[in-house]
Design a protein that fits this description.
This protein is of the alpha/beta class. An eight-stranded mixed beta sheet has the order 1-2-4-3-5-6-7-8, sandwiched between helices. Helix 3 links the parallel strand 3 and strand 4. Helix 3 crosses helix 9 and helix 4 crosses helix 5. It is globular, with a radius of gyration of 18 Å.
Length: 299
């Protein structure tokens, strides 16, 4: 790692952590508990909100647990539906509570996070269907006059970004989502990029082997869909992420398809860095950038 730039705060985080759990070789229930426990430390210093309320969204696949975060008690605010990461296998509105709170504060919009059904029990397209169902419920007035259902954004990190892409392509041309932010996303099962070779061996949190396992659980599309006709998009990528090149190539493909797209590359940080905002300045910078994007597009 000596010849690779790493942000000093990122280096301190890696030095202070133990070895990454061997999730693929753990019982699934145990691995999920471990993932939730490790994520809890990043949610210890959550910014103050005007309201945090848990609710359920009716669905044919069973009620979807959700959490509405409000930065202000003002009514008819924009709303961002947030789709958490975790390799389609892990994660919840609890593991990403801090990230959702920062997005709400920086954007001025309400954020509605959802616990979509997880793989491998519920492979693709279950999580996409749950997110589409959530957007339909918001549009139908589930949240009352707390939000303006005509000003809806979509955001997701990692696997949540890949789910969000599936949602956006399913809604193409229907104007249900005004803008979307996709953070260090998983978009196709591509493992032969230079960034996988450089950063996927185990020294930078996420590994290529674990990404293969995640994709085996999710069983999603093997290639990118048609990307034409999507709403304005904000993407970011982490400089020390095996998925870095996937995001760079994806942003290029979005532009070539005629979309309004912006990409920020954050040097010296690992996959999942936006979860680490309590200790990592680039994470706070990333939240501010995403917040500005939504403020401009949804206000």
């Amino acid at each position: 790692m000596s010849d690779v730039y790493m942000h000093p705060e990122m280096a301190a985080i890696l030095a202070g952590g133990g070895p990454a759990p061997d999730y693929p070789n753990m019982p699934l229930a145990e691995s999920r508990i471990t993932f939730e426990r490790l994520a809890s430390s990043w949610n210890a210093a959550i910014p103050a909100l005007a309201e945090s309320r848990d609710l359920e969204i009716p669905s044919a696949g069973g009620a979807i647990r959700a959490r509405l975060l409000r930065p202000t008690l003002e009514r008819n605010r924009p709303v961002i539906v947030f789709v958490h990461g975790g390799g389609w296998t892990f994660g919840s509105i609890d593991t990403h509570r801090g990230a959702m709170a920062r997005l709400a504060i920086e954007s001025g919009a309400c954020v509605l996070g959802i616990d979509y059904r997880l793989a491998p029990e519920h492979p693709c397209p279950a999580a996409i269907d749950d997110t589409l169902n959530t957007l339909d419920a918001v549009r139908a007035g589930l949240l009352g006059d707390v939000v303006d259902p005509s000003r809806v954004g979509l955001a997701g990190d990692s696997a949540g970004a890949g789910i969000s892409l599936g949602v956006l392509t399913a809604l193409r041309g229907r104007n249900r989502v005004r803008a979307a932010a996709l953070f260090y996303g998983c978009y196709a099962p591509i493992f032969d990029t230079p960034s996988h070779a450089a950063f996927g061996g185990g020294a930078y949190l996420l590994t290529t082997a674990r990404m293969r396992w995640y994709w085996g659980n999710w069983r999603g599309p093997a290639r990118l869909p048609d990307l034409a006709g999507l709403p304005p998009l904000y993407l970011n990528a982490a400089g020390l992420d095996p998925l870095r090149d996937e995001s760079l190539d994806f942003a290029r493909a979005l532009g070539e398809a005629g979309n309004d797209v912006r990409l920020d590359l954050f040097a010296g940080v690992c996959h999942g860095f936006m979860q680490m905002s309590a200790k990592l300045e680039p994470a706070r910078t990333a939240h501010r950038a995403a917040g500005r994007f939504f403020a401009e597009r949804l206000q």
